[in-house]
Request: fold
Amino acid sequence: MTQIRRALKIIRIVGRYRLDLFLERAALPLGLRVLLAPACLFGDNQDSRGVRLRMALEALGPIFVKFGQLLSTRPDLVPQDLCSELAKLQDNVPPFSTTLFVSAVEKALNGQIDTLFKSFEHVPLASASIAQVHGAVTLDDRDIVIKVVRPDIEKTIREDITLMFTLARWIQKYSVDGQRLHPLEVVEDYQNVILDELNLQSEGANASLLKHNFNDSTLLHVPEILWQYSNQSVLVMERIYATPVTDIETLKAADVNFKVLAERGIDIFFTQVFDHNFFHADMHPGNIFVDTSNPEAPTYLAIDCAIMGSLSKEDQFYMARNLLAIFKRDYRLVAELHIRSGWVDQATSLNEFTGAIRSVCEPIFQRPLHEISMGYMMIQLFDTARRFNMEVQPSLVLLQKTLINVEGLGRQLYPELDPWTSARPFLEQWVRRRYSPKGLYAQLKHHAPDWLEQLPQIPPMIYAALDNAQHKQQRTESTVKPAKLRVSINKPKSLGVVLLSIGLLTANPDGWQWMQQVPLINLMCIGLGALLLVVR
Reply:
């Protein structure tokens, strides 16, 4: 009965905001058409479809609001006018009872709130659709915040997701754009994201790793997780006292250097994506604060690490090369990189794809450099590539969404921000480091144990393959006697591989002048191994 009542409420809201216009009415079953028939009399069709969708999600409640927020990050699937409007959704949810909050903490930590903490604030600091946060002080006088998942929220989420799948099937079956939008995949993606957010231990682990990555940096501070108080249901972390990044007046009063602040935001993004390959993928303004104690070199503070992203090594490299090629207006290289990376089908016409990319990028580069949006350009490129059957990976979508957030925030802080000025030298240096002697050595050292482990198996594998080929040839011989198959293992080359691997693996170079720091015995192994590999 609960699901029936919820379904009827959804149908009423769908009719009120004329979301039925998203569907092809003639294709709907008769029963559904009858239920939606009053919409033409009582529904409101004055606003744009994006506004109507946003208002409908707000009326349906926090779980649907969260879903709308996720949709706003999927420009690869959702039309841009809908993305822009859904990005305005705010997660303003009334707090739940403090008594329930305390009960959840005491159950998760197996103790009384008065004995676990020195003091506890009964008024919540923040309340969202998934969790609620209260302030407290530990027994050793540390200011902390306690985050607890809303009681019974998982049951509500699963019920609403069941209904979302029903709506998604309707859209896929009866909407003109149903097949293109992949609504079932979008809902499944949302289900995975929101259920992961229920595990606060996962969020704490993300925050700990992000903090570790920036331990020696003044660019970003991440609150410390107090693991002795934390588990899947409760997350306790250091309390931060800083200025919200959207509080421009307070930042101005503190005499913050906005140019440096904006540029540091871009640096943080590229450092996370390319140096650490672990980036905060939910960097909307509500999760970002600023430490103004040093206004000429302000430090960012980031919270809410539930959604993080990373790229494969291949995507990392191709993304860096793509951005550099775009900056140099080398559109053919951009097309080649898309095809070579497998983002676009190998059978794609290189010339045709190059022309499509040029038609998108060249008009943008006719404008002043500081007006060019990297995030907007990525959206245009992905839209263009999709015409050539590009399948956008979720990691690239998260990257695009994060870049749009960071770039938009940077321009809000400092309108003259030119992210390309920061991006180009960073990416050029990153590519150089990747192919420097030290970078190549690091890759060799990383793979060498696997190579050495597999090396003794290679000669028998080669012999077995050749032996199988010989037996196959003997079985298929007819009247002509085949030539004798000779099996020959190149012992000098095998020895060369072993010596080269030992020489590289046991050396420990550091810095650019690496050859001067490698011990003589290692140089001899490397030299002899290389010599054996090149001799015939």
